[in-house]
Design brief:
By secondary structure, this protein is α+β, with helices and mostly antiparallel strands. It has a single domain, classed as L,D-transpeptidase catalytic domain-like (Beta Barrel), CATH 2.40.440. 24% of the residues lie in helices and 25% in strands. It is built from four helices and ten strands, in the order αβββββαββαβαββ. Strands 3-2-1-8-4-5-6-7 form an eight-stranded mixed beta sheet, sandwiched between helices. Strands 9-10 form a two-stranded antiparallel ribbon. The chain is globular and about 50 Å long.
Length: 206
């Protein structure tokens, strides 16, 4: 089935790399792939996030029900998940450890099946089955880190949807910082090199 879907999209199977991009407000997970003989990532499929918790804004402590925001990667595969299958992300990352409530950050944030969540990203059993298989294929092709970038919304110029939060400077500054990475991918269809500065903000390079 996946091979046929790739063929219909004029993509070679299996992909050499995959990239996962998540938008909380739109409740969508985008799957981008880089196949043989291609230098750029191409959109393969969009999955609906079928349940959500918390609100816009990053996860800063255990028990806040928030879905994280920022730049992560898959750090564990769980074929025996209680939610069919799951891909765990590396929350808390370095930025979260600087900006969050220390010693009380929580963890175990996953992309998984089913349709329930407290801070995770459920995309139904059928959705996670496809994503999990492609993640396994990408890892087998040599991809050591599968990036997972989580945004509050699509950070288009103006970010009008975020205007209701304009009085919260620390939050809007955080989103403006995320937007630099978002814009890089929108322009080049490749991922910037991302590091974390001492103040917890992200720094980008080519």
């Amino acid at each position: 089935m996946l091979k046929q879907s790739f063929k219909q999209a004029n993509l070679s199977y299996p992909p050499n790399e995959i990239y996962i991009r998540i938008f909380k407000t739109e409740q969508t997970l985008e799957l981008w792939v880089r196949c043989q003989n291609s230098d750029s990532l191409q959109m393969f499929k969009e999955y609906k996030i079928c349940a959500s918790s918390g609100e816009m804004g990053p996860k800063r402590k255990q028990g806040d029900n928030q879905v994280p925001e920022g730049f992560y990667w898959v750090d564990d595969f769980n074929p025996m998940s209680n939610f069919h299958l799951s891909l765990k992300i590396n929350y808390p990352n370095e930025s979260d450890r600087i900006l969050g409530v220390r010693r009380n950050l929580g963890g175990n944030i996953c992309i998984h099946g089913n349709c329930v969540t407290i801070g995770c990203i459920p995309i139904t059993d059928d959705g996670i089955k496809e994503l999990y298989v492609l993640a396994v294929e990408a890892r087998a092709s040599g991809q050591k880190r599968i990036p997972v970038h989580i945004f509050p919304t699509k950070l288009k110029d103006g970010m009008q949807v975020l205007q209701d939060y304009r009085k919260n400077k620390s939050l809007t500054d955080f989103w403006i910082n995320l937007k630099v990475g978002y814009d890089h991918f929108e322009k080049y269809k490749s991922l910037p090199k991302i590091t974390v500065k001492a103040d917890g903000t992200y720094q980008y390079g080519h």
